[in-house]
Every structure is written in structure tokens, then in C-alpha cells.
Design brief:
homodimer; 222 residues; Rossmann fold; Arc Repressor Mutant, subunit A; 54% helix; DNA-binding
DNA sequence: GCCCAAATTACGGAAATCCGTAAGGAAGTG
DNA sequence: CACTTCCTTACGGATTTCCGTAATTTGGGC
């Protein structure tokens, strides 16, 4: 199993919880923890320079800003910077995020090795994830692998996303028309926008624009 | 310090984190933990019957439903039931909730003894809260006492949240009126709902309902 | 070129939203 | 009690949404 692990998590209680699991349930000896991305990066860098590098980084995604000014504001920044120096370090993300496409993005763009969702089964999932990643696997969470979670995936093109973005910003359809024409984006008639949005209502079983935006916000599509 | 404490928290990692703090930082000997309200209540009841009662209950508010059917679905239910049997038990709530009026309600309606907000300073706050409650104090969190936290927070009451929820579900104002009247919730005129929502537009600088829902979704208020 | 399917556009009407003004009611103060 | 203040309620009108039908354009295959 891993010997040397770095944990980055700003919520102290969760931080301590992870430490306890790594110590008690997995039996990892050398664990360091950080409450800020920058702090985590410094510990990582020092260990790397001392030729006593970490084998695994476990990090949250969102770090609440506070009085300390940080250059890195999210776990994504941390992962990028760490991987730039030590490309082979294993990375497990431990986060609240449960939206499949958001999680998939982490695997595709950042090549993370595992993901664990904060939740009721987090200990078992974390232990299994550690095991899998140690053996070289890529460990997807149930939120992504379960059939039920994947079935209702609707693929939207860029224009759909654009419309949803503008609607979420509170623009009326007429205002969107104006904006599209100004930016020379087609189609740009009010009628077509109506039709496209009506199709989105259908796809997402939305009753009206407000409902639609609420749904796609929850899905993390915008 | 307290000798016998019961911890109710459904997220395993947070649960373990609390245990670690209570053990390592406070030095409490006898700690029991539960992942469900009903489970917590059973442990409490057994200890009470065995004349070896808990002195303190630390509980979360929201418990995510899963396959196990529960009669108690929130920490509030748990607190009520526990206090009905053992009125003098101390209660500390440990929750995500940071809205001042929600937290105040817990002190006023349930007479809880302390509140700790899940966050970056949770360990220090929890330790201080334990100390204070042990000495008979009522320990309010910084979220309630600090001026700075209250100023830039738009405090929404339950009715506002209710409206936002219904709007996000795609109900029209007329449908909301019907629902409110059916559930005997006042106020329930279309005009008042209009006014309330208009005030929310003002508060959040929203252009229309869709924009408003997008904003409060982003803020995580609903 | 011709035909077809799909997408875009135009238009109209019932319903809902948004935003005024104004009247009625409850609670607190002197 | 009179007065103020805040909240609720009623109502109307301009704008927008939502959802039809129908005409027009686009793109591909033969």
C-alpha cells in the first residue's frame, strides 16, 4: 500500500476524518495534511526536492476563501501544478460534487486516478479507491458507473448551452436575438430560439424556463 | 469534561473526524456514534434505561435518506425525542447550515446548548463549544454573533426559501397560491407572492424569475 | 436539377410575468 | 385613540412566455 500520502481538505473535521481512515483502516504510516491548496503545494514541493516525494495526493475540489490570500483557489489548480512537477503522482479527488459529467471531466482533462464522493459510504469507497489506485486502476465512483446515473444523459450542442447560459443570466428571448445578431451567430430568430428552448423543455421535462434553468444548474451543465 | 457523548452524523468521514477530535483533542473516553437518527435514538434510549445515560448529544441536522426507512428524518426530530425522555441532556448541533435565523431558531425552539458550523475552523469551534457547554453556557457560533457575517448576507426566511423552491420546480405563481392555500400556509395571495419575489429580485439584483433561481442555485441557497 | 427531411423563420393567441398604484389590516408607540 | 410602519391584498396594463400552425430555407442523396 502507499507509504506517503498528502491530504488537502479545508474542512477540518473532514480532514481529520480522512486522516483517521487512512491511519486506522488502511494503515498508512506517513500522512501529511493541509487546509489550503498553497500549503499543500509547498509540502508537496519540499518532499519532492528532498527526494522523499509523496506517492499519492488526496484533495478536495473547492476550498472556501478566507483571510489568507491564495494563488490556488481550487483543487484543480493544485492537481495541475503538482502534476507539472511530478507527473506520475497518483491523485484521488474527494469532493461533494456528484454530477457525472463534472466528474468525468476530471478523469479526462486531469487524468486523476480515483474519485470519492463525500457521502454516507465514503469510508468504504475511499478504502476501495485507495486499493484500486494502488494497483494501477482508475477508480470511478458509483455516481458515474451506475447505469441509473448515466441513462438520462442528454447531449446538448454549443448553441443549446449558449441559450441556457443567456436564459440563466436573465435575458429575454428578444434580448438574446439582439445579442446573437450583434455577434453574427446563427440561427438568430426569436422563433427558432423559441423552438430550441421548447425542445429543451421536452428533453429535460421542464415546465417553463425557470424550471429548465434550475434543472440544468443541478446537473451542472451550466 | 463530559465523559459520555453520543455523536449522530451520517457522513462517515465527518463522523470519524468528530470522533477523532473528541478523543485526541478533548480526551473524552466514552463516545458512541450513529449514522442514522433512529440508530442514535436507540443507543440513547438504551443508555438511559441502563442508568448510564449520555451527558451530551452532538448531532447533524440533515440526514440523507437512503434505503433504510427512518421514522426520524432530521436532527430536529432526534433532539425533540431525546429531550422528551431526558430533558437535561446537553445538545450541540454540528451542521452545514449557516443562516443566522435558522440557527437562532434552534436555540429558541429547541433550547440547544451549542452550535458549530461545518467549516474550516470547525475543530477549534467544536472544542470551545464543548468547553462552554460543559460549563453551562450557551455557545452561539460566529455566524450568528459576528457583525461582518450578518451584513453581507441576505437573510431569507423560510417563506422566501419556500417560494424559491417552488419557482425552481417550475410552478407558476397561481399554482403556488393553490398549493399554499391547500397547505394552509399564509400569506397566500398572488399579489403578496409577487411582492415577495420582487423583493428577492431587488436583493439579488435579478432581472427575472429565471435569473433569480439561477443566482440562488449558484449560491447554494436552494 | 429534383426531391425530401430537417431546420429556420413568421405569426397569432392564451397565459404568465413584471411592475406600477392603492386599499385594507395588524402591531407598536406616545 | 390617533399615528406610523410594515405586511398583505386587490387590480390593471405592458411585456414576455409558451405553444400552436404554416411558410420558407438549407443541406444531402440520387
Amino acid at each position: 500500500m502507499f507509504d506517503k500520502v498528502l491530504v488537502a481538505e479545508d474542512y477540518e473535521i473532514a480532514n481529520q476524518g480522512i486522516l483517521k481512515v487512512l491511519t486506522d483502516d488502511v494503515g498508512i504510516q506517513c500522512i501529511e495534511e493541509a487546509k489550503y491548496c498553497d500549503e499543500a503545494f509547498l509540502k508537496f514541493k519540499k518532499a519532492h526536492q528532498d527526494e522523499n516525494a509523496f506517492e499519492l495526493l488526496i484533495t478536495d475540489l473547492s476550498f472556501k476563501p478566507d483571510h489568507k490570500v491564495q494563488t490556488r483557489t481550487s483543487g484543480i489548480d493544485l492537481i495541475k501544478d503538482v502534476r507539472a512537477i511530478q507527473p506520475d503522482i497518483k491523485v484521488i479527488v474527494y469532493s461533494q460534487e456528484s454530477r457525472p459529467d463534472k466528474i468525468n471531466m476530471l478523469f479526462e482533462k486531469l487524468n486523476i486516478n480515483g474519485y470519492v464522493c463525500k457521502g454516507q459510504q465514503a469510508i468504504r469507497e475511499l478504502v476501495q479507491c485507495l486499493q484500486g489506485v494502488y494497483e494501477g486502476e482508475t477508480v470511478l465512483p458509483p455516481e458515474v458507473t451506475d447505469r441509473a446515473n448515466r441513462d438520462n444523459v442528454i447531449d446538448l450542442d454549443d448553441f443549446d448551452i449558449l441559450l441556457l447560459d443567456e436564459l440563466a443570466m436573465g435575458l429575454t428571448k428578444r434580448e438574446i436575438v439582439v445579442k446573437l445578431k450583434k455577434n453574427k451567430i446563427k440561427p438568430n430568430s426569436e422563433s427558432t430560439i423559441d423552438k430550441r428552448v421548447a425542445k429543451l423543455f421536452d428533453d429535460f421535462k421542464a415546465k417553463n424556463t425557470t424550471h429548465l434553468v434550475a434543472i440544468v444548474k443541478d446537473l451542472g451543465l451550466i
